[in-house]
Amino acid sequence: MAYDFACPDWVARLERGAPPMADLPLDRIAADRAVGIFNNLRLPDVAGFPLMADACGDWFRDLVSAAFGSADPVTAERAVGEIFCLVPKKNSKTTNAAGLGLTALLENKTPNAQMLIIGPTKDIAENCFNQAVGMINADPVDPDTGRQYLVDRFHVVDNDLTITDRITGAELAVKTFSKNVITGAIPILTIIEELHVLGTNPNAAKVLAQIRGGMITRPDCLLLFITTQSDEPPAGVFRAELIYARRVRDGEIKGGNMLPCLYEFPEAMQLDKAKPYLDPKVWRMVLPNLGRSITLPRLARLYQKAVDTSPDDEIIWASQHLNIQVGMGKHAEGWIGADYWMQSARPLSLDEILETSDVVTIGVDGGGLDDLFGVGVIGRHRETRAYQAWGRAWVHPVALDRRKDINTRLQDFVADGDLVICDNPTADVDEIAALCKRISDLGLLPEKHGIGLDPYGVVSLIDALSEVHIEGEVLTAVGQGTRLSPSVWGAERKLSDGTMIHADQPLMNWCVGNAKSEQRGNAVLITKAASGKAKIDPLIGIFNAFHLMARNPEAAGGSASPWDDPNFSMT
User: Fold this and answer.
1) What pTM was estimated for this model as a whole?
2) Per residue in 401-451, pLDDT tens?
């Protein structure tokens, strides 16, 4: 039986304190039995060892119900084969994961079954193991026999971080993430904690593919992700899984077996520059364990400390404690335009920009083989005169090899189509020249000052442009550094008043988040947030294009668009 996991009223559910996930037609007997086992486990690190029935919020019991109540009684196939839970820190993720693992062992009927709880780091894995062992040791002594049921049933091996059921032979192993984490038999349960930490791990996608590939042969397998939001823009497998879970929740993807449970504020609320999510009155929406493992006064103190420390600390606090997605890096010393960037996003393509513009300027920011080669295109809308921006970058394989710290993130941009990996030494300049020629052939470039070039690192591009007969006064050297100040300030203003929009490209969003502004006398200098790691090249391309568009040019082909000609064809 296929379930419908769409939850269109997820915001309303959060507002009334209900889990933000679909109501499912579960086997209540099986679900309640598993919840009963989970409830009778004890919290090991609190005085008195309170029952999980009291220490855990109802939200996680709903996940336990879904995990164990969706199996077909005949085939054992789970309608809920995967769960993706996004929940802020201090909501007992690790403890709850340990409890679910023990519940699975106690529920299991399969001889010698394998189960895994995978932590992204050694500390997280060991902490989860210690919580599971603590729950076993906290099991009360039977007054009649003087024995502890869980202690007698489970064999614990501390060195290997494993717990074995003496009755079924099933094993729960707690491991640190690595390429070799999956060996031998396919686990019937895999819990992956803090997936966001694995976002930049180049092996993560392969391991997940291996886990999912094995699950095909076992209809009773369950994969559970339980993670906090990242303190950097989501990347790699975390970004991919988060996007997929949101699309399932929003009803865009149907027919799968993933149940999303995402404790996050709606996007509009996260992007509102007034930051309404910082009002403690709304924090309850995303804190399902509030009043147990975390309280509002304690959380408010942590927030105030972050505010008093630095803007960066405030951003990190919001990402970890409220699941605010870092996308624009609104640092105090960050580019002011970043505060207005996301509100200026539109679902635009380059073709749409060219079709609706009366004139186009192009900006180029060159670089070496171990850097990005960035291009920015700005088209002026023929009716509204709004600036419409689009960017792209090129990268050589040597840069991917040398920039391993951002390799996974760059691969995401390649998949988006915003970053191109060069397959030969001149692929970047050849393709940029072809792009410029295409726009020139449409009659959209000005006769003079149509292509703005960073004076450094563009010699090869000038040669490539000459090959396609683009040369002379249409090419302009644009001063860099503080000489770009008018473009930086101008873009800030036009973004803030709505007269500059952009194509909402993840690559450009990342570059904008990386941009820092430094005051140099009466001028401003846009620099990288971290040398070598954070890239801003296509953003500089946008500034170069802005510099030329601010001259209020007219297209060489006249003010009429070629699309107005019924005989015009792109082919």
Assistant:
1) 0.74
2) 877 778 888 888 999 999 999 999 999 999 999 999 999 999 999 999 999
CA distances from 309 to 89, 297, 315 (A): 20, 18, 11
pLDDT tens per residue, range 153-175: 999 999 999 999 999 999 999 88
Would you give the distance in Å from CA 169 to the centre of its chain? 39
Give dist(CA 387, CA 378) in Å, integer.
6
Q: Which amino acid is at 354?
A: L
Q: How far is CA 430 from its chain centroid?
A: 32
Separation of alpha carbons 546 and 358, rounded Å: 15
CATH for 338-564? 3.30.420.240
Q: Cα dihedral angle (425, 428, 431, 433), rounded to 10 degrees?
A: -100
**Cα 216 to chain centroid, rounded:** 26
* φ, ψ dihedrals at 184, nearest 5°: 75, -135
Q: Fill in the amino acid letter for 253.
A: I
The DSSP code for 371 is: S
Kindly list the domain boundaries of the chain, sorted by start residue: 10-270, 338-564
Q: Letter for the amino acid at 334?
A: G
3-state secondary structure 101-160: HHHHHHHCCCCCCEEEEEECCHHHHHHHHHHHHHHHHCCCCCCCCCCCHHHHHEEEECCC
Provide the 3-class DSSP secondary structure of residue 280: helix
Domain 10-270 in CATH 3.40.190.10? The answer is no
